[in-house]
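Figure 2 data, in text form.
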Amino acid sequence: MKRILFVCTGNICRSPTAEGVLRHLSRELGVEVHVESAGTHDYHVGNPVDERAQKHAKERGYDLSAQRARQVRKRDFEEFDLIVAMDRGHLELLQRHCPAQHRPKLRMLVRGHDVPDPYYGGPEEFEQVLDMVEAACLGLLHEIRSATS
């Protein structure tokens, strides 16, 4: 079973959305994964997912209500098979803190593109994030399925 960690800044919008979407889609597609999310910073540790992110996710059938924000831990680099950054800044921070032997586990969710932070935006930004996350998570699940079959 693949262990996947999604990472954004505060772990209240993008990465928990990706966690919830991947968890839901993996069940639908029958792909076994363990998925979590974390933030590069400790701004919101212990807090629930942003209400707007929860609302937009729920409208698409994803329940993010049980998730709570946490910060990336040193042991995450060892414990997870794949650590997925939402933008280049997150990837650079992860690369700086990641032991060399675990750096191949690091990648962007959308290769070559940042998933924009919807925190200061409106409904359109949250919908854009969901569109990007859904497409990328489907691709990731197909990649995992292909690698294990």
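Caption note: The chain is about 45% helix and 15% strand.
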